[in-house]
Fold this sequence. Notes:
Jelly Rolls, mainly beta, five-stranded antiparallel beta sheet
Amino acid sequence: MKNNIIKWFQILIIVIGLTAAVSTKAQTYLDGRKYPQTSTILKIRIPPPGNYSVGYPLKFKVKYSQVVIVQGTPSLPVAVGTTLRKAIYSSGSKTNTLEFKLDLLQGDQDSDGIKLLNIILLEATDKIINRRGIDAKPDLPSVDMSRVLVDAGASPPDLSCQADTINDETPPVTASPALKSEILSDLILQIGNGIYRRALTIKTTRTQGTRAYIHDHQYSGTTFVLKGESTIYMDGSEPKKFLPGEAYFMPTGHSMSAANTGNEEAILVDSFILPIDGNLWRVLELGYTDCGKEIPSAL
């Protein structure tokens, strides 16, 4: 049944391609430079391998050759079992990377991997255009999602230790534990009637030329640079360097790694406020030896 859905959609794609073909040849402008007439899709980033259930949406990131502008709500057609679903555009307009999200429903099942059909769906009011107003090519590259499974009744997916890149690139320098970690304060705060929070501050020393393992945070925090240099690599953002006296925010739900890119030891202070039983972070890096283990000190 799933194969029939895919074949039917492939025929529809051919018809769309024949009736809405757009030239990708470069056009010469008055300044003598050549610009591609349309933006094409370079790559697509799929969800990490896992068995996904309700409450754990499937997120896709589509990278274009140019900055694109989105009008309406384009979608990606995704075959989940024998059902054709849509991953809906969620963010990224006026950048070169768009994010699409598919919220799973009770009863969704796919034990041999979901399938992403090879075109972006555009309704009558939807557009994806470049800065010159030319429609972007909707064709998607083929990707293998045989390890992206769906079971609406399953436990939350274990995504630990699957990542090896941030923004499709491996962060520079060597991933390793911090040279030294010290808890400066660990306080229990009462913020309401029977409501308590943990305020945790950690001082970390990181050797020159090393970085934290790729990880994410369940609860946000702030890092202050006391000495040296720290460059933060974060999903969805360009790398940014921070020097002594500067600080950066660590949001929830983003893979990240802080690297000592200076020429001396870096000393950082991390500050978090979280529930009493809340986890500080989750290691995502491929090959990490303590996969899934909560670490009560800096990475």
